[in-house]
Design goal:
Layout: E1 3-10, H1 12-20, H2 26-35, E2 39-45, E3 52-57, H3 61-73, E4 77-85, H4 88-98
Antiparallel strand pairs: 1-3, 1-4, 2-3
């Protein structure tokens, strides 16, 4: 199954709730991913533009999109960025296939 990275920024109201009642939300996140045919691989709290980095193993793009939409629609997150992930081996395969495209840059 394909892997996806989700970068999530909490809304101020969500932070206020988490400060009042600290909690590990990854059980809920994992259950939501499982209902869409995927699974939570790992999650990290981060600094900077995003507050969480979540790696999901989802069955397809539609399931990954559905997960991102559900998270965004919940209101606790002010932004959700989803990035499909390629293994290094798959990236090299893509590089090797690129030549077959016949693409010619403008000159």
């Amino acid at each position: 199954m394909p892997l996806y990275a989700l970068q999530v920024s909490y809304a101020p109201e969500a932070w206020a709730t988490l400060i009042k009642k600290p909690q590990d939300r990854m059980k809920v996140v994992g259950q939501a991913a499982e209902k869409l045919g995927g699974k939570l691989v790992t999650a990290w709290m981060t600094f900077g533009d995003y507050d969480m980095l979540v790696i999901l193993d989802m069955k397809d793009q539609v399931a990954a999109a559905a997960f991102a939409v559900a998270i965004a629609a919940g209101g606790a997150c002010k932004s959700v960025k989803t990035t499909p992930l390629l293994s290094i081996e798959r990236g090299i395969e893509a590089m090797k296939r690129a030549i077959a495209s016949g693409y010619e840059p403008a000159r």
